[in-house]
Each structure stands twice: as structure tokens, then as C-alpha cells.
Automatic annotation (TrEMBL):
Pfam families in the record: AAR2, AAR2_1st
Ranges that cross the membrane: none
Family from the record: Belongs to the AAR2 family.
Organism of provenance: Aureobasidium pullulans
This protein's name: AAR2 domain-containing protein
Region (Disordered): 417-462
Length: 462
């Protein structure tokens, strides 16, 4: 018998069940009892009741590096009533399995690396798993799964709170049932500015989400940006192995956040280099995802294509060369998507106008406005509006030169409050009247005068 090494024992698996570890998956046989010769590091073991589509249950395990201590030996069993993988806690069973370890080791455990003929491929898969998960840490798993190392478990149906269906009257526990809630980072792409921000600050934070990225890193990741990439890797791994939909949504949200940052690229270039390298590696395994959750065709990858195009345009506009490594990594990613996946996402590589042939043979000219928002073209193009004298007076602007010189103008709200204060000082009293009373006290206007007032009011508001 070969030397004892780290192993996991899987008991009571149903016949022809789906089993897997990391990037390996297989249909189990009656003789199969587990996996041996597991290399050190974090690994994910998953099981499904059938080899077809079914709810899968998985557990993360940590294998320690070789030392003088006995190698790690994990025992899990399949609970047929709940269809989940749970820890074996029966003392008698534990002693019995350890007593028969020699026979089980020889006849019932399959090696992590299958055979000598497949050794090169197995080593490559093992290395790829390490690359796909190198930023996943014990602290990250504890945070996301809200559990200690013995119960790092989740299923295909586990979900984060932000992905629950909003059903009035039902609590979070009612919505999740017995499924574990995932405590993923609260990425809110609808609000990417600080509390109390107004005006220009909100606009800039919506276009450049660097503040939101830094805020998440500070509040939830102990200022460790690798945890952002770690969660990106965790979500992809759970989509790859469990087909977990909530993790797919979080993967999209994190990518949307990272690839819409601008100023952070110059201050944290190494983070973006690592993030882009991670995305490239994940795309190389995107075809392995079942059920079509990842559509990497040229037509199906619109979400990621538009993000990469927008990110490239933002990098091209940045001054200096502090982000040169980020540009190189992005160019490598774009080259891969074009050569391997057939994507066309380079700037200027899409048609804005063209002729569309109808079924009856008629041809009509069509305009493509899909990228107008990113290009600030068409209806999204910025416009210069000339203010009228009344609008300038309302905004407290004495002249255009005052604005050009950067002189501060009174805030409209401050002006209104000042007018109200002055009115109160002069002895005016305000009384709320009914509609009929207020109409009696108003002078009569003809329709032309009323329309003119409406237009002036609209000018003042816009």
C-alpha cells in the first residue's frame, strides 16, 4: 500500500451519483468511497444525487501542508433524507472506518491525480485550480459562509440576501428555507457615492466607481483588495461546480464594479492587473459551466463586452504611464477574446449604420445606437444650454464671466430660505388656503398669458 496521504471519505453515496473535487467531476460507482492523495490547500468537494441536473451540495476543506503530524483525513456522509453532505459524527462509525482504512485506501479511494498516463493533464488541472482560487482565504470563506472550518458548506440553491425575491410579509428565513444564506459583499451599483454627496460628486462617482470599491475594501475586507478578487474567484468556482445562480449574479456585480473604476487604476494598478488576469483564466473555463449560465458567444456576451470596451476607453483617456501594466493585461485579455472566443469589442469595430434586408426583399437603413451612451453620442451627447436672464437671476448668477472665473454662486435652496427669512422679518405671515380660497384671490389670466407663464416656469426648472 502506498503511503497514507490526505484523503476524504464519502459514505452512503447513492448509485450513479455525481461526484467531484475542484475541476474534476465523475459518476460514482458502488466501489467509490472517496479521494486520496489530495494536495495541500483549499479544495471543494461536491455531490449530486444524480449525474444529471440536480441540486448539488458541496463542502470546502483545507488540507494542511505535509508535516510530522498525521495527514488530514476527512469523513463526510450523504444524508438521503435531506440530500446533503454532512459530517460523520457517530463515534462507532468513525472508529470502524479508521480500522478498515488500509482496505478502503487500496480498493475504494481514487487518487486526486488519476493515473500516470494522465499525470500531465492532472497536474495542469491542479495548477489551474490553484490559479483560479489563489485569492480565496480561510477568512473569506468564514465571512461568506458565516461558519467555521468544519461547516463550510453550501448548495446550488444557497443565495445572498440581495438576490432574494422581495415577497411582502415573508422574512429572510422564510425565503431561504433550510438553505444557507451567503454573506457576499453588498455591491450596490445604484449608489456608488458617499453618504451626503450631492450634485457633481454624485455624477462623478456614478461614472467612476473608485470610491465604492475603496469603501467596500475598507468596511468589509480589512483594506485587503485581494479579498475582492477572492470573492470574484469564489463566485466563479461555485457557478462552475454547483451552478449557483446567486454567485453568478455577484460575479457580474463585482466585474461591473471593477471595470467601471477609473482613478483607482492609477493608484492600485497591481489590483487591476490581477483582476484582468483572473477574468481571462475564468473565461478559459467558461465553456465548462453547464446549463448555459455562461454564454460566451459573440452575441451572448454583451454584458462583458460592453464593460471591457468602456474600460479600455477609460484607460486610453488616462494621462501618464502609471497604468501601463493594466493596459498590457487588458490587451492580452482582448486578444484572447477575439482570437479564441470570436468577440469583436475593439473600439470602432461595430457598425453604426447599415442596410437591413427584410423577408420580402426590401432593404431599409438602420441606425445602431447601442453604444451611444458609452460614447456620449446621439441623445447622450453633452449639450450647452444658454441661460436666460430670468434663469441667471434665479440661480444667483450675475454674469457668465462670474461662472467662468469660478466664483461661487448662492445655492438655490439658500436663496429660497433667505427670502423666507426676510419675509418673516418684514412681518409677512403665510396661511395655507384651500384651492377655492386661493383661486378667489388670484388675478384672472387669459390662456395665452397662462401658457407663457408655464413656459417660463419650465425654463426656470430646466
Amino acid at each position: 500500500m502506498d503511503a497514507i496521504s490526505p484523503a476524504i471519505l464519502l459514505l452512503n453515496l447513492p448509485p450513479s451519483a455525481l461526484g467531484g473535487m475542484d475541476l474534476l467531476s465523475f459518476t460514482t460507482t458502488p466501489k467509490f468511497k472517496g479521494i486520496k492523495n489530495i494536495p495541500s490547500g483549499l479544495h471543494f468537494v461536491f455531490v449530486g444525487s444524480t449525474s444529471t441536473l440536480s441540486v448539488r451540495h458541496g463542502v470546502w476543506i483545507k488540507v494542511n501542508a505535509p508535516s510530522s503530524s498525521p495527514p488530514d483525513f476527512f469523513i463526510r456522509k450523504w444524508d438521503s433524507s435531506s440530500e446533503e453532505l454532512i459530517a460523520e459524527t457517530d463515534v462507532t462509525t468513525l472508529l470502524q472506518q479508521r480500522a478498515n482504512l488500509g482496505r478502503i485506501w487500496r480498493d475504494n479511494l481514487t487518487p486526486y491525480r488519476q493515473s500516470a498516463s494522465q499525470d500531465t493533464t492532472a497536474v495542469e488541472d491542479s495548477n489551474r485550480w490553484v490559479q483560479l482560487t489563489d485569492c480565496i482565504s480561510e477568512s473569506l470563506l468564514t465571512r461568506v459562509l458565516d461558519a467555521d472550518v468544519e461547516t463550510w458548506t453550501l448548495t446550488s440553491s444557497s443565495s445572498a440576501k440581495q438576490d432574494f425575491d422581495e415577497i411582502p410579509g415573508l422574512s429572510a428565513s422564510d425565503l431561504t428555507g433550510n438553505e444557507r444564506e451567503l454573506h457576499l459583499l453588498p455591491v450596490d451599483l445604484r449608489k456608488t457615492w458617499r453618504q451626503g454627496a450631492t450634485g457633481r460628486e454624485r455624477t462623478e462617482a456614478a461614472q467612476d466607481r473608485s470610491w465604492a470599491l475603496a469603501d467596500l475594501t475598507t468596511r468589509f475586507c480589512n483594506d485587503d483588495m485581494n479579498q475582492i478578487i477572492g470573492e470574484l474567484q469564489f463566485c466563479f468556482a461555485m457557478v462552475l461546480t454547483l451552478n449557483n445562480y446567486s454567485c453568478l449574479e455577484q460575479w457580474r456585480r463585482i466585474l461591473d464594479l471593477i471595470l467601471t473604476c477609473v482613478s483607482a487604476v492609477t493608484t492600485h494598478p497591481s489590483f487591476f492587473v490581477r483582476a484582468l488576469a483572473t477574468v481571462k483564466l475564468q473565461l478559459q473555463h467558461g465553456q465548462d459551466v453547464e446549463t448555459g449560465l455562461f454564454d460566451l458567444s459573440d452575441d451572448g456576451a454583451t454584458f462583458l463586452k460592453s464593460l471591457l470596451l468602456r474600460f479600455k476607453k477609460a484607460l486610453d483617456r488616462l494621462p501618464g504611464d502609471a497604468h501601463a501594466d493594466v493596459i498590457d493585461e487588458l490587451d492580452d485579455l482582448l486578444a484572447y477574446t477575439q482570437e479564441t472566443l470570436g468577440w469583436q469589442i475593439q473600439q470602432g469595430s461595430f457598425a453604426r449604420t447599415g442596410m437591413l434586408s427584410l423577408e420580402d426583399g426590401e432593404e431599409v437603413e438602420m441606425d445602431n445606437t447601442a453604444f451611444d451612451e458609452d460614447d456620449e453620442a446621439g441623445e447622450y451627447a453633452p449639450t450647452v444650454v444658454e441661460l436666460s436672464a430670468e434663469q441667471m437671476e434665479l440661480l444667483g448668477i450675475e454674469s457668465i464671466q462670474q461662472v467662468m472665473n469660478g466664483n461661487k454662486t448662492p445655492n438655490l435652496r439658500d436663496r429660497i430660505q433667505k427670502d423666507q427669512t426676510d419675509a418673516g422679518r418684514d412681518g409677512y405671515q403665510y396661511e395655507v388656503q384651500s384651492d377655492e380660497e386661493s383661486e378667489k384671490g388670484l388675478p384672472a389670466f387669459d390662456e395665452d398669458e397662462e401658457e407663457e407663464l408655464d413656459l417660463e416656469d419650465m425654463d426656470a426648472r430646466y
